[in-house]
Fold this protein.
Amino acid sequence: MEILQRGGVVALPTETVYGLAANAEDELAVRRVFAIKGRPATHPLIIHLAGVEALPDWARHIPPEARRLAEAFWPGPLTLVLPRTPRATDAVTGGQDTVALRVPSHPVALDVLRTLGGGLAAPSANRFGRVSPTTAEHVRLDLGDDVDLILDGGPCTVGVESTIVDLSSGAPAILRPGGLAAEELERVLGRPVPVRASSTVRVSGSLASHYAPRVGVVLVEPSEAIARAESLRLQGLQVGVLGPARLALPRDFVRFDIPEDAAGAARLLYLRLREADMAGLDVLVACLPPAQGLGLAVRDRLARAAAPRTPEA
């Protein structure tokens, strides 16, 4: 805690991924987070809070639907975008009039937040645009001595980032699918909550290319995986396949199995992408899950991993 109070940067576990945390009210510490990650200053951060009671400190207007979602899903993998108070500075919000807020459910993160008594700006603890870390070892491999302290809370239980819901104006909309399914949001609100393909509100993880391993990623439906992998191998490429264990791949294929259930696939997705990088492949053929439940978030992350690299990422 002393490290954060004096302007340091700490990697800590959440239920989604490991975060690179700094005191959200210490502008120099926040700017150091951007520098460590290589993150553009216009790409806003999520502020993590200790509980729903802290919402009015950071959001100047909290519509009833935002309150209902916070009370239903916090602590948990839900981020709410709301009009900001002056406490949320330009350094955290990227100069926007909105702020992204969430309460993580990991006991280590909550203990730090309760002791700090404020907010933590905490994007994923990796280089910008790359695969997010779901273990403390991933953070060590990515960031090394650039971080003042790494708190090891074990593997993340959700495995993909939070669902971001914009409630800053008008009807609620998902800006980034994540660890809370859209169906759960709709159950609580009693109305559809669409995924907004584009928005004037900038949020974390919204670039076309993001969450990207070094290996090239090709997306397929499971029924097409074997044929596509065979075709790529005939071109002289080293090929791996990411998909369910039921795929009857030839024995000499490099395979990376993930569970068929969406929650299991989300939990292991980033680990498997990192394993594919370590295998020294040229290309990874990745099977897309159905777009229901957390499968929507897995598809989103795979699509961004497969997108052409941009200068920002």
In short: The mean pLDDT is 94. Residues 164 and 228 are 33 Å apart (CA to CA). The longest strand covers residues 78-83. The chain is about 30% helix and 15% strand.
